[in-house]
Amino acid sequence: MFKFKPTRSPQAYLLRTLGFVAAGAMLLILGALTALAPELVVRLTPLILVGVVMLSAGFVTKTTVDQRLLRLWLAAIVVTITLWPSYMAIRVGGLPSIDLRKIVFGLSVLMFFYQCMARPVLSRGWQTLAPGAKWMCWAVALYGLLRFVSAFESQAPVLSFLAVAWEWVYYYIPFFFVLFLMRDEGSRQLFVRFVCLLSLAVLAFAVYERISGTNPLLRFAPVSNDAGELATALTMSRLRDGVFRAQATFEHPLMLAEFAAVVAAFSFGLALNGRLALVRLAGFAVFLASCAAALLSGSRIAFVSLAVVVAAVTLATVVRARGTRKITTAIATRLFVMLSMAAFAAMAVPLLQNLLLGRTATEASSSSARVQMLKDGIPAMLDSPFFGKGFGRAALEAGVYGSGGILTLDNYLLNVGIDAGVPALLIFIAIFILPAWMAFKRITEEEGPEQPFLIAGMAALIGLLAVRLILSIPYNLVFAFVIAALVVGAIPRKQLSHAPYGR
């Protein structure tokens, strides 16, 4: 029934034999646990799957997952993070709750590790990465390690360690998963199409929410713990100055605005750079939908982030290389763009001042609270600049009591700096800036079929970073890590042949 090929060395044969013995022992233990504690087995299923996958990968060589399956999995990731709120968990009977995010991202981790063990994905992919992409890999890995260090410094190290482990599952490992396995043009095309199509569903949901004044998904939010109290507080914050702020499938109206900025970057990029007239028309229609979603969110940062991404896409499209440029011309072009952006920012100062100060008493109170967070947060960050004060300390050091009496800190940069230290904060900012700079550099140096995607990806990363200045809820960060991976993966080490973007 089983055929064993002779191994080339006794050591390899011994290792394979030990592997089968371990598999048999695992099955025996699993059978005993199933009989004695079935609920425990259900809860240990993810760890059991990890063991089975790793074990099976050890006996498989030179196998690869079909690229179409990988693209479908990327689509599943985008659908999950867009349409499945992080608070939604469906419970059936006495079984553990079903959380689609945990299932999809957990299986993504398994798929990535399987590929790494079954074939030399990392070594081959590393050889073809652009130099900046390798720096990105080091940055993401080092940032994740510094987050673990902050977990050990916290007052509850075990719980903090688990929280950071889930950060790896949701944000950092998906970066490597996408970068090493989905660097083809088809994956980038699929990402853009799904983001644009899903934005229409999100807009429809937001319109229904605004008309009805209710969000049916909130009934899945927990109500018996701190997470439930937080969900209740976030729900209360949706009504400001008598205007109902939609949040659609996200946890907060600001997250809807953040998603709208991502959609605006890619849809506006299609509207300007799509090769076909129908694609450009569809891109413009989706862009209008993203503007409508931002408007329904009722947040000031929505208008700022939309302006940022539109300006970035427009300027990059105007100055992009139409061929291979001389290095002096490319540098002069970059200086022109940076000066133009500085002038644009200077002209926008009065408008930004009005937005920051607040147009109403409620907005003014919100702005005042955020200013107080900076006043408290920066000294707290400088008190422990190297490794931070420990995971979860940021809100205690610089937070204010908001809706529902919940202590909140509405600035993710402060959150990172206080928890993990200034080096972690600088690396986190670099995760946005480095791929944006790589894309900008490539755009102004040489023409290529990846150019339009790089323009949109660069704008999306800048818009996401802008929103992080006033938003501390982390769940949309997966967009930043996936887009960063797609952007740096699109920049070839050498000139490669790709299909045109936006076809």
Brief digest:
It comes from Pelomonas candidula. This protein has helices at residues 10-36, 38-57, 67-83, 100-118, 121-128, 131-152, 157-181, 185-212, 226-236, 253-273, 277-297, 300-319, 327-347, 349-357, 361-383, 394-398, 412-420, 422-445, 451-468, 477-490, and strands spanning 239-240, 243-244, 400-401, 407-408.
Structural class: mainly alpha
Count of helix runs: 20
Strand content: under 5%
Q: What distance lies between the first and last C-alpha atoms, to the nearest angstrom?
A: 50 Å
Could you name the ranges where pLDDT drops below 50 across 5 or more consecutive residues? 1-8, 224-230, 495-503
| Rounded mean pLDDT score | 79
Order of helices and strands: HHHHHHHHHEEHHHHHHHEEHHHH
Report Rg: 24 Å
Q: If strands are numbered along the chain, what order do they take across the biggest sheet?
A: 1-2
- Assembly form of the protein: single chain
| Number of DSSP E strands | 4
Number of domains: 2
Helical amount: over 70%
Protein name: O-antigen ligase family protein
Pfam families: Wzy_C (PF04932)
Keywords: Ligase, Membrane, Transmembrane, Transmembrane helix
GO molecular function, one term: ligase activity
Describe this structure in words.
The chain crosses the membrane at residues 12-34, 40-60, 72-90, 102-122, 134-152, 158-181, 190-208, 254-272, 277-295, 301-319, 331-352, 420-440, 452-471, 477-493. It is found in: Membrane. The protein is mostly helical. The protein contains 20 helices and four strands. It has helices at 10-36, 38-57, 67-83, 100-118, 121-128, 131-152, 157-181, 185-212, 226-236, 253-273, 277-297, 300-319, 327-347, 349-357, 361-383, 394-398, 412-420, 422-445, 451-468, 477-490, and strands at residues 239-240, 243-244, 400-401, 407-408. Helix 6 runs antiparallel to helix 18 (422-445) and helix 12 packs antiparallel against helix 19 (451-468). The longest helix has 28 residues, at 185-212.
